[in-house]
Amino acid sequence: MTEHPKIHPVVDVEAPAPTAPLVPPGSATSEKVAQDSSVCRNEPFLWFTQGRQRRGAVVAIGATVGILYLVFRPKLPKYSIDSLRISDLRLNFDMTLYAKFDVKITANNPNKKIGIYYKQGGRLSVWYTKSKLCEGSLPKFYQGHQNITKLDVALTGQTESGSTLMSALQEQQQTGQIPLDLKVDAPVAIKLGKLKMRKVRTLGECKLVVDSLSANNIISIKASNCKFRLKL
Description:
Blueprint: H1 28-72, E1 78-91, E2 97-109, E3 114-118, E4 123-128, E5 131-137, E6 141-143, E7 147-159, H2 162-173, E8 178-192, E9 195-210, E10 221-231
Antiparallel strand pairs: 1-2, 2-7, 3-6, 3-8, 4-5, 4-8, 8-9, 9-10
């Protein structure tokens, strides 16, 4: 009896094993991709909406400022130096220059509906060129509508290199024209009607020309030019 040959299946070891789809249809990952695509499509609309909101806020702020300006008609306060008196100006034993000045100032609030609170911490100083001669504190007070207030401020100070500075002052005094700078730095709060605004700073400088720096004598202010501004 003849034997038939047996056939055995051959396995290809190099063939890759069958794999399942990486992202089966209907899976959660597919849903996330769809959501991300939706967000991307909506981004231009979101930017447009946010841009309109920002522009609307800017327009509202501008309108409010315009209305306040029309209602209150704000004006900067005005200041002037009425008189300057030197009580003491001398060299100390340590060669520092000691100075004591008395300054009379007029503060004028021309506004009809705006009051000014002068807060604690205001300073007034007197300078010759780049050297500060003396400094003093401004009083704390409230200035009402269309009010004129007289201030009397005492200033004292000691300056290094007093001998050199005194010589320069004496030489300048011989010309009869001594330039001095009065600088103001005062924190204030503005009152609009019954609304009290946040604190700002009044910065100012008065350039003076006086005829003398002799102690306890009448000093004539030959020229005065003052400029002031508000700093938020």
